[in-house]
Every structure is written in C-alpha cells, then in structure tokens.
Amino acid sequence: PELSEEPPAEMVKMTKSKTFQAYLPNCHRTYSCIHCRAHLANHDELISKASVQFFFMQSFQGSQGRAYLFNSVVNVGCGPAEERVLLTGLHAVADIYCENCKTTLGWKYEHAFESSQKYKEGKFIIELAHMIKDNGWE
C-alpha cells in the first residue's frame, strides 16, 4: 500500500489563530478594558443607571463591586451559561471575558426566571473594576 505524506486529519493542529477586534469610532465616548485597552462598549449602549434605578429600584453589583448594564458589547467572548442566584433572583448567566487579554469582565444574562427581571435577557454586565473611559469624556 502507498504511504501518505499527510498526517491524519485528527492530528493536524492549527498553529495560528486570528483574533478579530472591533474598534469603536473615536468620536464616541467608549469604555475599554482597563487591562489591555481593547474597546468594550459605546456609551450609547449603556442602560442609564438613573432609569434602571428609577424603574427597577436597583443598582448593579458585580462580584468585585459596582457594574454597568449594557445593551451590547464588542471584543468579548462568552463562556457557557449556568444558573446563579444573584441579588435579584435566579438567572442563567454566562461569564464574559476580554477577547484580547482574557480577563473576566462580568457576565451576559441569558435567561431571567422572574418576570420582573426579563428586561436583562441578552444584556451584559461589566464591572467598573475592569473598564476605563476612553474618547471624548469631559
């Protein structure tokens, strides 16, 4: 039988991985990872702390202190969802991390079990300890 010079498919290793990083426009106020400065969110995606506190009578707490709730984020990876009992009840959440430096930043709300918490589904918590304000802040 002929010998193949190519290794079996299960033995082929990828030696290079490509990271795609999104850059938010310089003209907008943004939040970046405090550890590596990768852009994380546009200020326009922040769910107003005042409106959240007024309508839902709560502020957001992460495992390391205060946190902000965002509609969308960039340059983050998402771990597997798991059920956790948080201050506002049982939720299915997935930890999120910076795609650039791999620091855990907060979590994504996958599912809220209480009807009063459904507004969080699909939204992201980033702890203030892991982000810095960039571009156009006065």
TrEMBL record:
Belongs to the yippee family. PROSITE patterns: YIPPEE (PS51792). Keywords: Metal-binding, Zinc. It comes from the Eukaryota. It comes from Aramus guarauna. PANTHER family: PROTEIN YIPPEE-LIKE CG15309-RELATED (PTHR13848). Transmembrane segments: none annotated. Residues 29-135 form the Yippee domain. This is Protein yippee-like. Coiled coil: none annotated. One of its GO terms (molecular function) is metal ion binding.
